[in-house]
Amino acid sequence: MELDILDKKVAYFEGRPSGHPIHSEYAKIINSHFNYIDKYLRYHDKPTSPIKRYLSYLLTALFFPIKDFDVVFTEEGYFQLGLMRLFGRLKNKKLIGLMATHTAYFIKKKKYSKLTCKAFIETYKQYDSFICIGDIQYNLMSELLENTNVRIYKIFNGLKLNQIEYLNKLKLKLDSKRILFIGNLDNSNRLYSKGFDIVLNAFEDLIKIDSSYQLLVVGSYNDTIIDDIVSDEIKDNITFVGLQENISPYILQSSLYVHPGRGDAFPTTILEMSHAGLPIICSNEIGNYNIVSKVKSNMVINSSSEELLREIINYFQLSIEEREQISAKLKISALPYNEERAKEVFMSTMNKIINEKLKAYK
After folding, report:
1. What per-residue string of b and e applies to 59-82 under the rule 16 or more CB within 10 Å gives b?
2. Is-above-0.90 flag for pTM?
């Protein structure tokens, strides 16, 4: 008899201040019981000492009432759940991770210490399955967990139908020299994964060619970090507007969106810009670059400022009519990426996982 995830009691763990809203929606549709990963000793959203952090790991691993649940579902792969498995508290329970962060990419590129990389991989080995959002996450996790019996699955994210309808109706002019970038830049890891240093380097060279270009940056940021990386030569050509609930005014002001990310799992902004029809230059190291490559392959680049600069120049040499053709094709390319279809694939994947035989643990 086929098992159904909706008949199971699911504990869901997420970080603070909250998980990604799309990930939370996945957890909600399987009726998960929500928990912060630092439930017993808070550390996840503020600077803290390593000792306090390690103690928090142990408290969750030892004292969370896991016996009340059949399935454990986590946003990413958490050390706490790896420890819980090692302590023998997850017998006959499925441990499933949702992978959609830059962590796997950072492990591959050795952005963490050797010890941290090993700790992540050993933690991942304690999981039964990982559901990866997008090709990049799927390929990275398959590589990291090669020769293990951890099962890897791939899904995608989508926008709500009413949001897609709203974005589709925006009337873009595409005649300005304004470039849009969206991403939270409040720490160095995010700055790197979003590729903002690449954007700045390319933009600095662009301004030397034509000083009339403008860069519009939407998202939270750290003043100290920004002051350190934005040169005086380009400060007058960049506008930081901070975190915005409504991004449509900034889409309407812009002619091009850039996202040369590094391991950015499945950027929601790529979905938003595509459904709005704002032409995109992105890297081949983000999980949904195929939306762009199906429209114009040269607008998908390696993560380098030289390639970004080249394609920005090429784009602005296009006529308005050619830009509008790219815009229309992007909307078509993005059509499959809606929330209703994404949830169906997620539910099907979850049911497949819970019907698999449990792994054998030593």
Report:
1. ebbeebebeebebbbbbbbbbbbb
2. yes
